[in-house]
Amino acid sequence: MVTARTPPIFTSPQDAAVAFYRAFEARDIDALMATWADDEDVVCVHPGGVRHVGYDAVRAGFEHLFSSGGQLHFRLEQIVTIETVGLAMQSAIEQLQAGDDGAHGVAIATNVLMRTPSGWRLVCHHASPAPAVAEMPLTGPLH
């Protein structure tokens, strides 16, 4: 188990993102929060939920989510990543399954990660319910 005294060092944004989703699936709040920057400006929005700002608020949001008792499994698709020296953005379609035989859902997620002195950490996770039907891209001039 990861503790506050022995935080992992994620050497890439991808390592931090993978650790985030593994901890989320395992419902391991300490491991999940070890993927976040310990900062009052971090932000998290769960699908259909309120905006949590600050490390303690983000933790409380995940604790509330985990208290529901259901386990989620994630499969990320259509991953788009932009990375600079100190900041990375990952956008993906989250295919979600509740439990082993549970309901399926789809969310669109954006993760923003920042390089810190202790490795890459999440500073923003924003997930929204995906529309039931993909919207057609706009073509031509906007009206």
Question: Which terms summarize this structure?
Answer:
single chain, 143 residues, alpha+beta, Nuclear Transport Factor 2, Chain: A, six-stranded mixed β-sheet, 3 helices, globular
Would you kindly provide a written description of the structure presented here, covering whatever features stand out?
The longest helix has 14 residues, at 13-26. The chain has 143 residues and is of the alpha+beta class. The chain has helices at 13-26, 29-33, 55-66; strands spanning 43-45, 51-53, 72-83, 87-98, 104-116, 119-129. It is globular, with a radius of gyration of 16 Å. The mean pLDDT is 89. Helix content is 22%, strand content 38%. The chain is built from three helices and six strands. The chain has a six-stranded mixed sheet. The protein has one domain (13-129): Roll (Nuclear Transport Factor 2, Chain: A).
Elements, N to C (H/E): HHEEHEEEE
Number of contiguous helices? 3
Based on secondary structure, the structural category is alpha+beta
- Shape-level CATH architecture: Roll
Task: Report mean pLDDT, rounded to a whole number.
Answer: 89
CATH class: Alpha Beta
Largest sheet: 6 strands, mixed
| Rg, Å, rounded | 16 Å
Number of domains: 1
Unreliably modeled segments:
none
Topology:
Elements: H1 13-26, H2 29-33, E1 43-45, E2 51-53, H3 55-66, E3 72-83, E4 87-98, E5 104-116, E6 119-129
Parallel strand pairs: 1-6
Antiparallel strand pairs: 1-2, 3-4, 4-5, 5-6
